Amino acid sequence: MRAFCEAIPVGELAEIVLGRADDLGYSNRELESGQILIIDSRAMGRFICDISISDGKIVEVSYVHNG
Length: 67
Hints:
Layout: H1 2-6, H2 14-23, E1 27-31, E2 35-39, E3 47-54, E4 57-65
Antiparallel strand pairs: 1-2, 2-3, 3-4
């Protein structure tokens, strides 16, 4: 998850990132605040990629380890 999250470039379309996450078996939750959480469900949600979007594009990315 960390490598996936750190490889997301600012400015990329959220749709592309969500497709890549789906291909890798990650789940996601889109929040109304313009935020997407990509979650490694296999790790019971301990590893999360927190993404902020605006106009369908990535503006900020951070990796979260809930361990």
